[in-house]
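Please think about what follows:
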Amino acid sequence: MKSILSKKVFISFVMMLVFTFMFTSCAKDEKTSGDKADSKPKVTVTTSFLNDMVNVLAKDMVDVQMIIPAGSDPHLYVAKPEDHKKIQDCDLLLYHGLHFEGKMVEALESKGIAVSKNFPQDKIGRMQENGEEITDPHFWFDIDLYKDATKVAAESLIELLPDKKGEIMSNLESYLGELDKVKEEAMGKIAQIPKENRYLVTPHDAFNYFSRMFDIEVVAPQGVSTDSEVANKDLSKTADFIVEHKIKSIFAESTTDPARMEKLKESCKEKGFDVKVVSGEGKELFSDSLAPSGQDGDTFITMFRHNVELIYENLR
């Protein structure tokens, strides 16, 4: 009798083990299948501008990872080991082009898509710096070029997610309409600034596309890249221009040292002219980056409106 009971206990124990194994395997298979179904393509972007662009077009269809943090200066940014991993492990890599990401160009060109690739050559800004002709990468201040860049991003996302083409195209059309509205608003605001006051003085040459689109002259002591030094003669030359044209306000940028503009103010004061430096939290121009997430200016549209309003309020 005891032997029969022991045998029954043993069989029950084995059955319990088999059932436990089968249940665990099924649960694991379900989890793996679910993870696979829930996984999204990885899109790596270089800047906050492109991060916003992809979020507008693809919303939650992709996982976006950004290389250069919002608020950082892309001209000076040096890629970290984890950035190289983001480049290698993604399904789609988008970057500005026009040498904006100067220290990462080789890695980006080997795998990525430049959103500026379709720009007409006669629309790309060029200027002289240190005796050489260079390309101006700050195309986002020309809203028409920014729209072209957005179309390239949309095409790339559709290639990645062909079954989402309808949604992406709908988001694109809606966004292009919003950009047209922002452009119209900006033109109306800048046109209200008297022509004799329409001078935009900034730390580095980031607003030449803006100058061309909105008919406002831009002056900066530093060249296109913030990587170059600002010579005292350049500061003095800019100060002479401010004094000559009686420019009442000059602007700091969110990604450059505001002390540079204070130094320019002192140079003007030595020449007998007092100029206001527009700076401080919420009162800086965005040039090479959007604001960090959650702050005013953390999308392209809010950034553009912020800049235009700041210029209008201080130059009109």
Q: What stands out?
A: The domain at 42-171 is CATH 3.40.50.1980 (Rossmann fold). Residues 253 and 284 are 5 Å apart (CA to CA).
